[in-house]
Fold this sequence. Notes:
The protein is an alpha+beta fold. It has one domain. The protein contains 5 helices and 4 strands, in the order ααβααβββα. It has a 4-stranded mixed beta sheet. A hairpin with a 3-residue loop joins strand 2 (97-102) and strand 3 (106-115). The radius of gyration is 19 Å and the shape is globular. Mean pLDDT is 80; it is low at 1-5 and 7-36.
Amino acid sequence: MSFDLESLLNEVSRGFSDIEREFGGKKAQEPPDLTVHTTSLASINDAFRAAEGNAGIAGMWVLSPGLEEHGEAITADICALVRQHDGFDPSDQEHAFGLVVHPSVGEIVWQIDYFADENCEQPATDPMSTDQSYRVLSVFTASEVETA
């Protein structure tokens, strides 16, 4: 999910101004700070991704067949690169997607998806709740993503 936070906050602020006029100039509450939500979600995703285990956050890693064919040593290197990744695009406020480069494999793409449980059949209704969501971190070679 992608949205422009500044535009959303401006829309919410305009809505509060309309309410203020409608109710005779009484001051409406300020719009909620949505950056707290996305920052917290980014923190949860960072902890999940960076942990050797699951950091108390339910989920699993899935490596593509294209990565697994490179053998255990290289996949371990790739997992370490994904764990250490901190060069996020400003539009990825959830820290749910990234690209790293391995010297012998090339570009590696990873993403985190949220599910309701370990069956991964339904999307999570609240990814912020680590009790009510299950993360799947998928890791692919860039060439696998291009051919999908």
